């Protein structure tokens, strides 16, 4: 089992997208905002090195997101952003083209409020434990 805390305000990917225009072709494309990219980079630095092992077996990723406000937040979007961060930080192997998937569950994940200490508490266990 792996447990660690990311001491940053949780950020979703989908609410932090921007529409940009390719300077050469003039075509529009969707890009992640600077705020999300910065969050992703900070997370990479904050995840302990001993957990960067590219897990390639089925796991459950339980995350408790502590938000600074009691606003309604989409848990699915938070989970999606966290899973992308875990892949980028090399904690999990990229399973976008694999079958079966590596993240097979998010059992126990939820959103709480902590105005003074927003963070994400992560627990990764092998599926079936």
From TrEMBL:
<dbReference type="InterPro" id="IPR008822">
    <property type="entry name" value="Endonuclease_RusA-like"/>
</dbReference>
<feature type="compositionally biased region" description="Basic and acidic residues">
    <location>
        <begin position="109"/>
        <end position="122"/>
    </location>
</feature>
<feature type="region of interest" description="Disordered">
    <location>
        <begin position="109"/>
        <end position="129"/>
    </location>
</feature>
<protein>
    <submittedName>
        <fullName>RusA family crossover junction endodeoxyribonuclease</fullName>
    </submittedName>
</protein>
<dbReference type="InterPro" id="IPR036614">
    <property type="entry name" value="RusA-like_sf"/>
</dbReference>
<dbReference type="GO" id="GO:0006310">
    <property type="term" value="P:DNA recombination"/>
</dbReference>
<dbReference type="GO" id="GO:0006281">
    <property type="term" value="P:DNA repair"/>
</dbReference>
<dbReference type="Pfam" id="PF05866">
    <property type="entry name" value="RusA"/>
</dbReference>
<dbReference type="GO" id="GO:0000287">
    <property type="term" value="F:magnesium ion binding"/>
</dbReference>
